Protein backbone atom coordinates (compact mmCIF):
# COMPACT_ATOMS: atom_id res chain seq x y z
CA UNK A 1 0.00 0.00 0.00
CA UNK A 2 1.45 3.37 -1.01
CA UNK A 3 1.91 6.19 1.50
CA UNK A 4 -0.74 8.28 -0.26
CA UNK A 5 -3.23 5.39 -0.16
CA UNK A 6 -2.58 4.95 3.57
CA UNK A 7 -2.93 8.69 4.16
CA UNK A 8 -6.25 8.72 2.25
CA UNK A 9 -7.58 5.78 4.30
CA UNK A 10 -6.61 7.43 7.60
CA UNK A 11 -8.14 10.73 6.52
CA UNK A 12 -11.41 8.97 5.62
CA UNK A 13 -11.60 7.48 9.13
CA UNK A 14 -10.76 10.83 10.73
CA UNK A 15 -13.57 12.40 8.68
CA UNK A 16 -16.04 9.90 10.14
CA UNK A 17 -15.06 11.18 13.59
CA UNK A 18 -15.31 14.85 12.56
CA UNK A 19 -18.50 14.68 10.51
CA UNK A 20 -20.55 11.80 11.87
CA UNK A 21 -19.56 11.75 15.53
CA UNK A 22 -18.85 15.38 16.39
CA UNK A 23 -21.09 17.31 14.00
CA UNK A 24 -24.03 14.89 13.67
CA UNK A 25 -23.69 13.22 17.10
CA UNK A 26 -23.93 9.79 15.48
CA UNK A 27 -21.95 8.04 18.20
CA UNK A 28 -22.51 4.56 16.72
CA UNK A 29 -20.29 5.70 13.82
CA UNK A 30 -17.41 5.19 16.27
CA UNK A 31 -17.73 1.49 15.39
CA UNK A 32 -16.07 2.49 12.09
CA UNK A 33 -13.33 4.46 13.88
CA UNK A 34 -12.15 2.24 16.76
CA UNK A 35 -11.30 -1.45 16.86
CA UNK A 36 -13.51 -3.63 19.04
CA UNK A 37 -10.80 -3.90 21.72
CA UNK A 38 -9.47 -0.34 21.39
CA UNK A 39 -8.31 1.72 24.35
CA UNK A 40 -8.28 5.47 24.84
CA UNK A 41 -6.16 7.32 27.36
CA UNK A 42 -7.94 10.59 28.09
CA UNK A 43 -6.06 13.22 30.09
CA UNK A 44 -6.86 13.32 33.79
CA UNK A 45 -8.90 10.11 33.72
CA UNK A 46 -8.32 6.36 33.75
CA UNK A 47 -7.92 4.32 30.59
CA UNK A 48 -11.18 3.42 28.81
CA UNK A 49 -11.25 -0.04 27.19
CA UNK A 50 -13.57 -1.52 24.59
CA UNK A 51 -15.57 0.11 21.83
CA UNK A 52 -18.85 0.33 23.77
CA UNK A 53 -17.17 2.08 26.70
CA UNK A 54 -15.38 4.40 24.27
CA UNK A 55 -18.68 5.27 22.57
CA UNK A 56 -20.14 6.20 25.94
CA UNK A 57 -17.04 8.23 26.81
CA UNK A 58 -17.27 10.30 23.61
CA UNK A 59 -21.05 10.71 23.95
CA UNK A 60 -20.59 12.09 27.45
CA UNK A 61 -17.62 14.26 26.50
CA UNK A 62 -19.09 15.79 23.34
CA UNK A 63 -22.55 16.35 24.78
CA UNK A 64 -21.23 17.46 28.18
CA UNK A 65 -18.90 20.07 26.71
CA UNK A 66 -21.37 21.13 24.02
CA UNK A 67 -18.87 20.48 21.21
CA UNK A 68 -20.24 21.70 17.86
CA UNK A 69 -17.32 21.04 15.54
CA UNK A 70 -13.83 19.63 15.52
CA UNK A 71 -10.95 18.89 13.19
CA UNK A 72 -8.13 16.37 13.26
CA UNK A 73 -4.82 17.11 11.58
CA UNK A 74 -2.11 14.53 10.99
CA UNK A 75 1.24 16.05 11.83
CA UNK A 76 3.24 13.00 10.83
CA UNK A 77 2.53 9.46 9.68
CA UNK A 78 5.11 6.83 10.44
CA UNK A 79 4.50 3.64 8.49
CA UNK A 80 6.99 0.95 9.43
CA UNK A 81 7.50 -2.16 11.48
CA UNK A 82 6.87 -0.94 15.01
CA UNK A 83 5.45 -2.22 18.26
CA UNK A 84 2.87 -0.20 20.17
CA UNK A 85 2.77 -0.66 23.94
CA UNK A 86 -0.15 0.56 26.06
CA UNK A 87 0.37 0.55 29.79
CA UNK A 88 -0.18 1.91 33.25
CA UNK A 89 2.42 3.44 35.55
CA UNK A 90 2.48 4.12 39.25
CA UNK A 91 4.96 6.45 40.87
CA UNK A 92 5.64 6.36 44.60
CA UNK A 93 6.60 9.82 45.80
CA UNK A 94 8.93 10.81 48.62
CA UNK A 95 6.00 12.08 50.70
CA UNK A 96 4.48 8.59 50.67
CA UNK A 97 1.75 9.38 48.13
CA UNK A 98 1.22 7.52 44.89
CA UNK A 99 0.48 8.91 41.41
CA UNK A 100 -1.21 6.84 38.70
CA UNK A 101 -0.73 7.39 34.96
CA UNK A 102 -1.24 5.69 31.62
CA UNK A 103 1.02 5.69 28.58
CA UNK A 104 1.49 4.67 24.96
CA UNK A 105 4.95 3.95 23.59
CA UNK A 106 5.75 3.12 20.00
CA UNK A 107 8.88 1.01 19.89
CA UNK A 108 11.25 0.96 16.90
CA UNK A 109 14.37 -1.08 16.18
CA UNK A 110 17.54 0.97 16.01
CA UNK A 111 21.12 -0.29 16.03
CA UNK A 112 19.86 -3.82 16.77
CA UNK A 113 17.83 -2.85 19.86
CA UNK A 114 14.19 -1.98 20.49
CA UNK A 115 13.96 1.64 21.65
CA UNK A 116 11.14 4.03 22.52
CA UNK A 117 10.26 6.01 19.41
CA UNK A 118 7.11 7.90 20.45
CA UNK A 119 6.08 8.23 24.08
CA UNK A 120 2.89 9.81 25.46
CA UNK A 121 1.47 9.73 28.97
CA UNK A 122 -1.15 11.42 31.10
CA UNK A 123 -1.66 11.44 34.84
CA UNK A 124 -4.96 10.05 36.11
CA UNK A 125 -7.03 12.65 37.97
How does the major sheet shape up? Answer: 3 strands, antiparallel
Shape: flat
Mean pLDDT reading: 92
Briefly note the structural class of the backbone.
alpha+beta
For the record, the count of structural domains works out to 2
Radius of gyration: 17 Å
Q: Which percent band covers the strand fraction?
A: 25-35%
- State the name of the first-level CATH class of the largest domain: Alpha Beta
Helix content: 25-40%
What's the total helix number?
A: 2
Pick out the low-confidence regions: none
Features:
125 residues; alpha+beta; Nuclear Transport Factor 2, Chain: A; three-stranded antiparallel sheet; two-stranded antiparallel ribbon; 29% helix; 30% strand; flat
Describe this structure in words.
Helix content is 29%, strand content 30%. The strands form 2 sheets. A 3-stranded antiparallel beta sheet has the order 3-4-5, with no helix packed on it. It has a two-stranded antiparallel ribbon with strand order 1-2. With 125 residues, it is an alpha+beta fold. The protein has helices at residues 3-23, 51-65; strands spanning 39-40, 48-49, 83-92, 98-110, 113-123. A hairpin with a 7-residue loop joins strand 1 and strand 2 (48-49). The protein contains 2 helices and 5 strands, in the order αββαβββ. The model has no long low-confidence stretch (mean pLDDT 92).
